[in-house]
Design brief:
By secondary structure, the protein is α+β, with helices and mostly antiparallel strands. Helix content is 28%, strand content 29%. The chain has five helices and ten strands. A five-stranded antiparallel sheet has the order 4-10-9-6-5. A hairpin with a 6-residue loop joins strand 5 and strand 6.
Length: 226
């Protein structure tokens, strides 16, 4: 599912709840990060790192610990960029060589409505209006959850380039279904604060894709070299 949202240069590995990756053993340094966490959190933490290590192997990089850096962002081996995500019963990791992409972000969420009141604190007025229009035309999709996921993917692609927080209100995201259905499409993010400088050019827009499948919404944002 995640792989379909990303360029061919990216290696994506995902796991559902019955996959053996959910029992991935942790390195001691990783174990220390979740020593006091509940069992569910520990399993998700391990599973997504199992996905990441398998992606490393596919890229010819020896598997190694994935530790947390500033603001919890994963620290990748030299020469790689990537992103991870997990939700109930699903996790995924995507890695690519830094020579092929500048940054990327992925996110997955359960395909259900956001808890009451969350949207009002997350979405811009223009975004809320577009969500209402999408819901009227294609009610089978929980567009509020999809937009929330898109904002998470935007942030995950943004942070490695800026090392700064990006508030939900600082990116205006438009979701568009593909012409042949409402289960996948594109996302376009307009940054409302100065964007990152990539290869000497300031970026004010991010592009990505989304899909809805088997009870999960997934989004991706990819930042190529200019």
């Amino acid at each position: 599912m995640i792989e379909e949202l990303l360029p061919e240069s990216v290696v994506a590995v995902e796991a559902r709840a019955d996959d053996p990756l959910w029992e991935t053993p942790l390195y001691p340094a990783e174990e220390a990060l979740v020593a006091r966490s509940v069992a569910k959190r520990r399993r998700e933490f391990a599973a997504v790192r199992g996905c990441a290590r398998r992606a490393m192997e596919k890229l010819g990089v020896p598997p190694q610990p994935v530790l947390s850096g500033e603001r919890g962002a994963p620290r990748w081996p030299d020469g790689l960029v990537g992103s991870m995500t997990h939700c109930d019963g699903y996790c995924a990791a995507a890695l690519v060589r830094a020579a092929d992409l500048v940054s990327l972000g992925i996110d997955a969420e359960p395909h259900g409505p956001l808890p009451e009141g969350v949207g009002a604190s997350v979405f811009l007025p223009a975004e809320a209006t577009r969500l209402d229009q999408l819901a009227a035309r294609r009610p089978a999709v929980h567009w509020d959850r999809l937009l929330f996921s898109a904002k998470e993917s935007v942030y995950k692609a943004w942070f490695p380039l800026t090392r700064k927080w990006l508030d939900f209100s600082e990116a205006d995201i438009t979701l568009r279904p593909d012409a042949d259905g409402d289960q996948c499409g594109t996302l376009h993010a307009e940054l409302l604060v100065p964007g990152p400088v990539v290869d000497g050019h300031r970026l004010q827009t991010f592009e990505g894709r989304w899909t809805v499948r088997e009870g999960v919404v997934a989004t991706s944002v990819v930042i190529p070299h200019t």
